[in-house]
Write a structure and sequence with these properties.
CATH topology: Ferritin
Low-confidence stretches: none
Radius of gyration: 18 Å
Number of strands: 0
Bound molecules: hydroxy diiron-OXO moiety
Helix content: over 70%
Structural class: mainly alpha
CATH class: Mainly Alpha
Order of helices and strands: HHHHH
């Protein structure tokens, strides 16, 4: 027999729970998408970008778990998302990073919508919790934008792509070091 929820009362609304579960799915999709990109990069010989993306995929799983624990601790039910439709093939390294930038902008918009919802219903607890994601998205977007800029700054001809591949990992390592020093 299914175990009943012990605490029936909670301040988390069903609407907020649903929005947070959608965000859980989005972070899970990010993790899966970046893992798939890491595989393509490794298979294509972009080893540094692959390393960056393997790390990034782990980071996204961390984001998903942060939300997962919050929803359950707030008296809700975190749902493990079904993840399908992941892209496995790419035409270029530039395409990989352009789609990361687009994806991160979509994640920022999604977080902002949930924060706005929390503000409107005065759920300041969840709003406060989401502040971490607001700041994280600022960093994630900057990182993705810097990676895309490398393609025009360095140029893809000659040893260009080889250099871009190395610089992408440098960007990732610098961001990780900055996070660790926080
Ligand atoms: Fe979770 O920040 Fe990227 O998607």
């Amino acid at each position: 027999m299914e175990r009943q929820r012990v605490t029936a009362k909670r301040s988390l609304t069903e609407a907020t729970e649903e929005l947070l579960n959608r965000q859980i799915a989005m972070e899970g999709e990010s993790s899966a998408a970046y893992l798939s990109m890491a595989s393509w990069c490794e298979m294509t010989g972009y080893d540094h970008s692959a390393q960056f993306l393997y790390m990034h995929s782990e980071e996204e799983r961390g984001h998903m778990l942060k939300l997962f624990h919050y929803v359950n601790e707030a008296g809700g039910h975190s749902i493990q998302p079904e993840i399908t439709g992941i892209q496995h093939h790419f035409t270029s390294l530039r395409e990989v990073f352009e789609s990361i930038l687009e994806h991160e902008i979509a994640v920022t918009n999604s977080i902002n919508e949930i924060v706005n919802h929390c503000y409107e219903i005065k759920d300041f607890t969840t709003m406060n919790f989401l502040n971490w994601f607001v700041e994280e998205q600022r960093e994630e977007e900057t990182l993705a934008r810097r990676a895309v800029e490398l393609f025009d700054l360095i140029g893809e001809d000659g040893v260009g792509l080889w250099t871009i591949d190395k610089e992408i990992l440098n960007l990732g390592n610098a961001a990780a070091a900055a996070d660790a020093g926080e």
